[in-house]
Design a protein that fits this description.
By secondary structure, the chain is α+β, with helices and mostly antiparallel strands. It is built from two helices and six strands, in the order αββαββββ. The protein has a single domain, classed as Roll (Thiol Ester Dehydrase, Chain A), CATH 3.10.129. It has a six-stranded antiparallel sheet with strand order 1-2-4-5-6-3, covered by helices on one side. The longest helix is centred in the middle third of the chain and has 19 residues.
Amino acid sequence: MSDVITTADIQLIQRIIPHRYPFLLVDKVIDIDGTSSATGIKNVTMNEPHFQGHFPGTPIMPGVTIIEAMAQTAAVMVGATMGLMDKNMLIYFMGLDGCKFRRKVVPGDVLEMKVETVRGKPGGKVWKFKGVATVEGDMAAEGEFTAMMDLQG
């Protein structure tokens, strides 16, 4: 039996998902519990390109990037658990449900994204997840998202 992965650093994340700067939105994934749940960590910095225009003088992380960061966390959780490192996996959104934004996320914040699997099974392509993003315990965003994971050869 192989080692159980419970944490993914940035090197492992990049071996699982194809995202790269400026669209790699998760720095670390911790508390990976198989394909059931995990927590992603995103250190929000002023260096990120979306802050140039969203909004000048009042930088706020766009809500869609928070949802994307939760989806990347879920993909890392599944990929790490299923041993999909270096497998050229692509992930496509299929649906978003009940997305709500409750708090501004700004440079200097540490975004914690707890995701859990609602539906999906190892070997399956379509998965549904529920995510909650918080900063210092305050809810920033929540929602459910469906994605298709596709291995490219």
